């Protein structure tokens, strides 16, 4: 069983250097500046006011089923490839981001290696469980 969150887009006065739909090199433009996990779909850099989430690319090949809804929300599959997902690590960071005063920045993989497109600031609007295949 995997859990998913609905992430509606929201707009605020951005203090981040990313432009909506701008493309960035994940390693050089994001992790070099803010650190965090470079290989994970959820990156939680220490001492950073944001959490970076990445969707697309090879995610569907390893069992993640992220889907953009017609209303702009993203149905995002959390962290964990086998068995029931747990509310720990990156999943907990997303779930608690408002309580912890962290922005949630969404990037979408492009077809170019290492290049991601900034989709904007999102918020976790809920959490639910559903059955999906293990990776």
UniProtKB/TrEMBL annotation:
Origin: domain of life: Bacteria
Pfam family, one: SRA_ScoMcrA
Family matches, as InterPro entries: SRA_ScoMcrA
Domain ScoMcrA-like SRA intervals: 23-134
Name listed for the protein in its UniProt record: ScoMcrA-like SRA domain-containing protein
UniProt source species: Saccharibacter floricola DSM 15669
């Amino acid at each position: 069983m995997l859990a998913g969150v609905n992430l509606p887009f929201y707009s605020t006065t951005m203090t981040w250097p990313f432009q909506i739909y701008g493309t960035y090199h994940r390693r050089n433009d994001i992790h070099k500046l803010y650190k965090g996990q470079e290989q994970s779909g959820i990156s939680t850099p220490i001492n950073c006011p944001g959490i970076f989430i990445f969707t697309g690319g090879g995610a569907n090949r390893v069992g993640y089923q992220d889907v953009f809804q017609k209303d702009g929300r993203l149905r995002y599959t959390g962290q964990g490839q086998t068995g029931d997902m747990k509310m720990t690590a990156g999943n907990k960071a997303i779930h608690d981001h408002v309580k912890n005063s962290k922005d949630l920045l969404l990037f979408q993989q492009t077809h170019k290696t290492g290049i991601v497109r900034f989709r904007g600031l999102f918020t976790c609007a809920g959490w639910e469980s559903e059955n999906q295949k293990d990776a």
